[in-house]
Structure formats: structure tokens, C-alpha cells
User: Which sequence fits this backbone?
């Protein structure tokens, strides 16, 4: 027999799990490039790191998906972040160590981590 | 804690189960384990998405990709491409209509775009065998609030009244008023019953089945709230035995709700108690009629009895009894959680909210659709349904099943609500919506529904037992080509008597399909009677097959394939059909590559 409090606790816990099924456009979407090149470059641990970090911080309304090859294989692992109403941001050569920073600055505080983005990487290559 | 990144929703409703969707779910389990993704991807066996004709359906979330007609052999590719590499398998994406537009998200399809899903809100989205998922989708929020705040039962009934919700089982009686009558009725020993009508006997209808299969807890919660509001002590769900999946899921749901203390004694530790049991019906159409249903629950033969007394006053075992349809209950928690005004804002002045229809017949997208009341038939047929296939013309739509009538093509802009449908001689009914094209014979349609009624009449009263059979015989006479114009008058007279003197609504409404086809398609009846001709070419006795000599090349193909040996002729000479031998099977029509065979 559950109490009212237990019922509420189950609801909160389950809501997090069901977030993934929310098809509304208000969700932030994190897409990790998981084609062969991405997997070879270590995309899987990056995906796991995102899931872990989002869970650790108890964040809601963020879905993590995998996408195919984005066409910049030399910069893999690639992660795209879609915040509703903002332009897509592409992070490149992402490592699990970079993930907490992206989550904290971009997903929570809405500040793009410019130094990890594709723009920064391309400038570096030119320099 | 497992970190799940994808949910694979495999439809395990009746439609998809019949095309082996449970095996697909098993195959996913195996393939995911092989790809070592079992801890990252969760498989959810859901209820119906409403796309049954394109089943089995598999949806992958959060990406939103909807795959249709999936086979077990497709599973390795979906896992390898989509779940490992994130590449959507285009060739399996659900295609709409003939044009072949694919949509990556279900919500973008024409089929879903015009729908408003309230009763079906969780079908396909949650695991119907998990009370936790139901709770996560705001399940038991309404009941929890009521018990926590010790809400006054009258204010719940007021909210239901204010919402404007009307019974979805056919008659369209105000749900709030029915709850009020049951609450106000006095029971000699304090016992009151709360029942759910899940008999769903209309041929082709499967709205209630889909709700029970996809979201069974919503019915349990709504019945529990109803019991709280009217003072109910025991609940029964009367469900037909032909619905094994719905029954299994209801049993699981009742079990889990009892374990959680959401059914039974002292719900959530309060002093409110209520429990629910299932009662299986043997599938007689008449047992969906409320008094017959209760007689059947009591253990007697399911026959109607005269009303009054109405069930709200004297129902099951002579106690006040609330009886509502599955879909009616499916709206309750939404109303309480979202507010009665919000519900009343949907629909028309007298018909509020939404209605679920089982869309079938000659239509491109068949399936289950939920539309706001007042949506026109045109929107349903042309936009949601994708129109009549094969370039044929829309002729009529039938609503209300054996108790309803036809809506002809020139009334296609009729808004779908209780009043509008009744005004044109049809009715809302429980939600069957069958689309017909030029190849359907309206006399034959009327005959079909009447033959159903003849089989299902319980025989208790004479007008229905004998009258429906006589009516059926007259229709047969017409389709056989032996009808007279006087027969049409006799039919109308008989219909009048049936309506006026039958004991229950089965007999009272049995003439509707006949009367409405007579009203809108009288010329077709007359063609049968006077010209001995079936304009749609359906009634076998009134069609004949001929070979046009000028067109026949004498290839002999038709003669070889005729099962009755009715075709003769020499090679390279014109053939002929012996109409005495011809059994009108139509095989030759499809055989001839020169268009030499005609049906008249
Ligand atoms: C012959 C006959 C069959 C019926 N079958 C059903 C049925 O299958 N399901 C249903 O809910 N109501 C059916 N009804 C209507 C019920 O008698 C009753 O009106 C309804 O269940 C009340 O619930 P509601 O007010 O929520 O619509 C049938 C009525 C008749 C006359
Ligand atoms: S109208 Fe028909 S189904 Fe109803 S009680 Fe009479 S015989 Fe039975
Ligand atoms: S199939 Fe057509 S062309 Fe050939 S013999 Fe029959 S009617 Fe003539
Ligand atoms: S309709 Fe059938 S039975 Fe008649 S001629 Fe053609 S194939 Fe033979
Ligand atoms: S049963 Fe699968 S979509 Fe209806």
C-alpha cells in the first residue's frame, strides 16, 4: 500500500524517465554523431557522459540522441546541441572530460562554450 | 541507475499483434543484446497508435521516427543503422497515402495533424502494463488530489457537468447529470455500483478496445473517481470475451492497482474503499444495452427490461448503478486535471470535447482517429483519411453502425456532433465510421446491417423479433430483383412500427440504416425495383456478364479460367457467356486483357 507521498515520489521519478517520449519542440536536444567514424573516434563514451551528467544534475527537458555522420569525420566525435529558438551549435573533438562543461554552461546557463565549437576548431586549423 | 537514451515503442495492440508485433519486440531484445545496447535502449510494448492498417508499428524516441509494416527481418537493420549509428532507415518510415510522402515524426502526418488526442492521450506512449509509467504520465494525479484535499463529491460532479461531457456509448446523455442522479438515489443498504460498458458490439468498431489495451489504468482511475463522487462501493467492467488482450491488460492493471493500494479497502490510506471486477460478455450485441448488460452481470440471460426504473435508481441487484462507456471514462481525469472550461472550449455548443472514430471502408488511411466535435466529415475523409483510394468517388459515410445511418456526398460538410448527425437521419453512435464509394450498393449496405440485427435480436419482444426478419426479407426481395414499388411503402410502414413498439433501442433503431438509405438513395432502390438493375453492380441477381464480340480476340483465357464452364468459343473467334451457367463470380472480368468482358 502506497501513501500519497510515495505516489508523488513515483511520479517525479517516472516523469524523468518518460521525458524522452515528450515529442514537443520545447526540449533541448543533444545529438551525438554515432556513425562508424564517430564510434571509432570515441563517440560512445561521450554519449554515456552526457546521459550521466544530465542524470547527476537531475536535469529535465533534455533529450540525448545519436545522429549519423555529419561529414566532418576528421573532427569527430561531433556533438550538436539544439536549444529551441537558438541556432544549432556544433561541438567537435568532444571528450567525456568536456561534457560537464558543456552541460553546465550551455544546457543549464545557455552560454555556448565557444572554444569547443567547430568555428574555434577551424580557426585553429588555419592558424 | 540505468541511463537509457532511446525508447523503442513496439505497438502490441490487437491489430499489430495479429501481424506478429510481439515477435518484433522479442527480436529487438535479442538484437539489442547482441549490439550490447540493452542498458541504453529500452523496449516498450504499447497500445494502439491508430495506424493499425499499416502495422506493425515501431516508433523510436526521442527521435520520433515512426516505422510501419515492420517485419522481424527488419529488426537487425533498425538496430544497426538507427540505434547504433543514428541513421534513420528511410525505407521503413511510415508512408502516407498513395503519393508516398514520408514523415519522420508522427505528429507531422496528415493523419495526426487534425486530431486532438484526449481519450487516446497515452495510447502508444506508455507501457499499459506498468502502473509506474501511468503514474509518470500524470496518472492518479486526479484521484490523489481528490483524496488529499478531501474534495466534496458534489464539486466533482459539478466539474463534469460544466465540461459538457456526454456519453460516448451512443445515446449521448449528459455524464454529469447521470452521476448526479446516481449520487442522489438512495440505496436501501448503502450499496451502489459503478459499471463500465466495454461490450463494444458495433461491427468494425474498436475504439474502446484500443483505450483498454493502450491505457487501462485511466479507466480504473476514472471509475474510482466516479465511485467517490456518487458513493459507489463496487465496480464492474463488462468486457467482451473476444478481447483477450484488453482483458489480460485490465487484469494486470487491476492487480497492480490493488498492490499499490489504489483499489480495494482504504485507498491510499484514507477511509474511501472501492474495488473493481471484470465480467466477461459472450459477445451478444444486445448485452451492450444497459439493462441487458446488468441482467447479464447478475448472471441471467442478457435481455433488456423496460425503463424506468433507470439504472441510476434501480440497476444492478436493484441498487443505484452508474453505467458509462469506456471512452466516456477515458475523458474524466483529463477534465479534472486540465479544468472543465478547457474541455468545454473544445467542440461545439452542445457537443463538447472530442470523439474517437474507427475509420474504415473505402478510405486511404484507415485507423483510429480522435477529432474535436464539430470537425466536418470532409476533414475526416479528405484530410485525415486521405480520401477515397483508386480515383473512385466518395458516395456516402455510415456512422452509428446498425443503429445509425448514411451521410451522402452532398452533406460532406456536415459537422460531426450529436445534433447535426441526428438532424440528417444518422447518429453519432459509438464511433464506427465507414466510408463508401461508387462501388457500394446502398440497398446492399442496408441489408447487411439488417442481417446483423436479425442475428442479434434477443427475441424478447415481437416487433423486433419478427419485424426485423420481415424487413430483411423485403430487402432481399428487392436485391433479388423481385421487389415492387409497394414493397417500398411496406418497408417504410414496418420501420415505423419497429421504431414505435420495440422494447429496447436495438429494435427501435434497427430501421435507421434502411430509412436513411431510402431517404438519400431512393433512386437506387427504384433502379432495383423498376429497372431490375443494381447501379453499383453489387447485387448478383441483377448483374450479368457479357462479351463484346468486336473486342474479343478469342484468346480463350477467360474460358480456361471460368469455374462454371460458362464460356465457349473457338480459338481466335469471339467467345460467348452462357448466362444460365454463369455464377457471376467475376473472374473473367479480371482475366480479359482486351477489355472485352463487361458487367451490366
Ligand atoms: C443494442 C445496444 C447496444 C449497445 N452497445 C453498447 C456498447 O457496446 N457499448 C456502450 O458503451 N454502449 C452501448 N449501448 C448504449 C448503452 O445502453 C448505454 O447507453 C451506454 O453504455 C451508457 O454509457 P454512456 O452514457 O457513457 O454512453 C448500446 C445500446 C443498445 C441499445
Ligand atoms: S427490441 Fe429486440 S433486442 Fe430489444 S428486447 Fe426487443 S427483441 Fe430484444
Ligand atoms: S479473355 Fe477476352 S479476348 Fe480472350 S476470349 Fe475471353 S473475352 Fe475474348
Ligand atoms: S462471371 Fe464467373 S462464372 Fe460467369 S462467365 Fe465469368 S468466370 Fe464464368
Ligand atoms: S494495433 Fe498497432 S497501430 Fe493499432
Assistant:
Amino acid at each position: 500500500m502506497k501513501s500519497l507521498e510515495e505516489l508523488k515520489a513515483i511520479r517525479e521519478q517516472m516523469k524523468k524517465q518518460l521525458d524522452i517520449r515528450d515529442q514537443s519542440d520545447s526540449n533541448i536536444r543533444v545529438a551525438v554523431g554515432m556513425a562508424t567514424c564517430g564510434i571509432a573516434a570515441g563517440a560512445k563514451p561521450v554519449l554515456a557522459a552526457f546521459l550521466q551528467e544530465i542524470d547527476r544534475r537531475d536535469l529535465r527537458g533534455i533529450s540525448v540522441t545519436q545522429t549519423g555522420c555529419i561529414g566532418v569525420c576528421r573532427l569527430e566525435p561531433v556533438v550538436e546541441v539544439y536549444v529551441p529558438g537558438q541556432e544549432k551549435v556544433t561541438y567537435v573533438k568532444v571528450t567525456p572530460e568536456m561534457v560537464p562543461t558543456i552541460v553546465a554552461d550551455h544546457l543549464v546557463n545557455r552560454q555556448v562554450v565557444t572554444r569547443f565549437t567547430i568555428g574555434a576548431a577551424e580557426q585553429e586549423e588555419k592558424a | 541507475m540505468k541511463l537509457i537514451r532511446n525508447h523503442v515503442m513496439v505497438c502490441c495492440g490487437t491489430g499489430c499483434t495479429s501481424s506478429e508485433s510481439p515477435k518484433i519486440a522479442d527480436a529487438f531484445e535479442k538484437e539489442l543484446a547482441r549490439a550490447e545496447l540493452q542498458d541504453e535502449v529500452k523496449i516498450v510494448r504499447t497500445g494502439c497508435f491508430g495506424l493499425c492498417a499499416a502495422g506493425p508499428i515501431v516508433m523510436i524516441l526521442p527521435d520520433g521516427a515512426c516505422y510501419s509494416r515492420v517485419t522481424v527481418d527488419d529488426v537487425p537493420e533498425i538496430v544497426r543503422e538507427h540505434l547504433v549509428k543514428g541513421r534513420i532507415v528511410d525505407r521503413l518510415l511510415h508512408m502516407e497515402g498513395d503519393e508516398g510522402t514520408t514523415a519522420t515524426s508522427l505528429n507531422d502526418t496528415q493523419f495526426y495533424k487534425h486530431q486532438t488526442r484526449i481519450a487516446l492521450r497515452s495510447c502508444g506512449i506508455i507501457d499499459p502494463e506498468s502502473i509506474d509509467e501511468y503514474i509518470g504520465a500524470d496518472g492518479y494525479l486526479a484521484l490523489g488530489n481528490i483524496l488529499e484535499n478531501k474534495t466534496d463529491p458534489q464539486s466533482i460532479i459539478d466539474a463534469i457537468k460544466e465540461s459538457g461531457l456526454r456519453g460516448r456509448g451512443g445515446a449521448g446523455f449528459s455524464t454529469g447529470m447521470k452521476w448526479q442522479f446516481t449520487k442522489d438515489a438512495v440505496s436501501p443498504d448503502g450499496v451502489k455500483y459503478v459499471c463500465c460498458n466495454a461490450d463494444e458490439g458495433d461491427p468494425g468498431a474498436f475504439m474502446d478496445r484500443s483505450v483498454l489495451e493502450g491505457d487501462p489504468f485511466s479507466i480504473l482511475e476514472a471509475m474510482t473517481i466516479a465511485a467517490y463522487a456518487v458513493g459507489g462501493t463496487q465496480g464492474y467492467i463488462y468486457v467482451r470475451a473476444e478481447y483477450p488482450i484488453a482483458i489480460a491488460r485490465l487484469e494486470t492493471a487491476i492487480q497492480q492497482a490493488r498492490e499499490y493500494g489504489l483499489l480495494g479497502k482504504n485507498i491510499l490510506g484514507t477511509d474511501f474503499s472501492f474495488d473493481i471486477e471484470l465480467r466477461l460478455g459472450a459477445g451478444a450485441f444486445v448485452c451492450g444495452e444497459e439493462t441487458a448488460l446488468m441482467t447479464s452481470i447478475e448472471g441471467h440471460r442478457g435481455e433488456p427490461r423496460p425503463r424506468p426504473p433507470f439504472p441510476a435508481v434501480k440497476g444492478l441487484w436493484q441498487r443505484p448503478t452508474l453505467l458509462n462507456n469506456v471512452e466516456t471514462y477515458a475523458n474524466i481525469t483529463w477534465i479534472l486535471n486540465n479544468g472543465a472550461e478547457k474541455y468545454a472550449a473544445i467542440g461545439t455548443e452542445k457537443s463538447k470535447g472530442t470523439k474517437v472514430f474507427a475509420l474504415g471502408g473505402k478510405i486511404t488511411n484507415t485507423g483510429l482517429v480522435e477529432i474535436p466535435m464539430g470537425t466536418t466529415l470532409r476533414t475526416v475523409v479528405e484530410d485525415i483519411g486521405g480520401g477515397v483510394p483508386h480515383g473512385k468517388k466518395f458516395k456516402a459515410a455510415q456512422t452509428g453502425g446498425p443503429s445509425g445511418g448514411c451521410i451522402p456526398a452532398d452533406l460532406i460538410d456536415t459537422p460531426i456532433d450529436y445534433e447535426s448527425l441526428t438532424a440528417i437521419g444518422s447518429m453519432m453512435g459509438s464511433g464506427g465510421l465507414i466510408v463508401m464509394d461508387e462501388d457500394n450498393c446502398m440497398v446492399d449496405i442496408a441489408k447487411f446491417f439488417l442481417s446483423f440485427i436479425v442475428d442479434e435480436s434477443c427475441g424478447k419482444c415481437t416487433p423486433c423479433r419478427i419485424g426485423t426478419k420481415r424487413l430483411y426479407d423485403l430487402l432481399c426481395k428487392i436485391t433479388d430483383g423481385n421487389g415492387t414499388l409497394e414493397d417500398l411503402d411496406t418497408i417504410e410502414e414496418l420501420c415505423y412500427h419497429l421504431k414505435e413498439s420495440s422494447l429496447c433501442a436495438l429494435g427501435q433503431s434497427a430501421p435507421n440504416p434502411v430509412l436513411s438509405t431510402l431517404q438519400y438513395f431512393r433512386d437506387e432502390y427504384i433502379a432495383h425495383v423498376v429497372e431490375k438493375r443494381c447501379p453499383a453492380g453489387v447485387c448478383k441477381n441483377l448483374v450479368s456478364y457479357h462479351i463484346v464480340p468486336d473486342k474479343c480476340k478469342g484468346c480463350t483465357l477467360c474460358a480456361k479460367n471460368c469455374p462454371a464452364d460458362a464460356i465457349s468459343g473457338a480459338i481466335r473467334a469471339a467467345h460467348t457467356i452462357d448466362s444460365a451457367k454463369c455464377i457471376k463470380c467475376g473472374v473473367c472480368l479480371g482475366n480479359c486483357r482486351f477489355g472485352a468482358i463487361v458487367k451490366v
Remarks:
- Residues 4-18 of chain A form the longest helix (15 residues).
- The pocket of FE2/S2 (inorganic) cluster (ligand 5) is lined by residues B 11, 13-16, 48-52, 55, 57 (CB under 6 Å).
- Helices of chain A lie at 4-18, 36-40, 43-56, 99-108, 118-126.
